[in-house]
Task: inverse folding
């Protein structure tokens, strides 16, 4: 009767899983404080409100994100948009995407409840810009958000 060697197979499987997990890990540089500025459009009950957004937070070298403040300006409706449930937390998932949880705002039209949104990440080496793109991301409460935010400093994601 043949004897199967399970230990080498198990070790090979463990190495494969470890290699696969590290293939999805990111490194963000520089780690530390960040700001995000740009235009956003919040839609609630069919009414779209275009605002300038300014967010402040931090990112770790492993890609953990924390947004600790967010403000919106522009027209009179923008003045009525306030961020709630801060900090919003998330993770840079890859060189081209991130996820942010707990995103919520109050508006003059009602509340947009905490939700998880996804965003595209684009690095432009010249000029040095990291752009966070939101495309019609749904928020609970009948809301959606789109926009383009530039990070300061420029973030390199590998």
Result:
């Amino acid at each position: 009767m043949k004897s199967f060697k399970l230990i080498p197979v198990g070790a090979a499987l463990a190495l494969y899983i470890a290699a696969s997990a590290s293939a999805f890990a990111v490194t963000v540089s520089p780690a530390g404080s960040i700001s995000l500025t740009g235009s956003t459009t919040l839609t609630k009950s069919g009414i779209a409100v275009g605002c300038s957004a300014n967010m402040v937070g931090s990112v770790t070298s492993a890609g953990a994100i924390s947004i600790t403040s967010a403000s919106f300006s522009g027209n009179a409706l923008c003045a009525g948009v306030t961020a709630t449930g801060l900090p919003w937390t998330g993770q840079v998932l890859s060189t081209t995407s991130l996820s942010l949880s707990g995103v919520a705002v109050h508006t003059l039209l009602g509340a947009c409840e905490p939700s998880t949104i996804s965003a595209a990440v684009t690095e432009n080496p010249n000029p040095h810009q990291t752009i966070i793109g939101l495309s019609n991301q749904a928020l609970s409460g009948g809301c959606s958000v789109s926009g383009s935010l530039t990070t300061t400093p420029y973030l390199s994601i590998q």
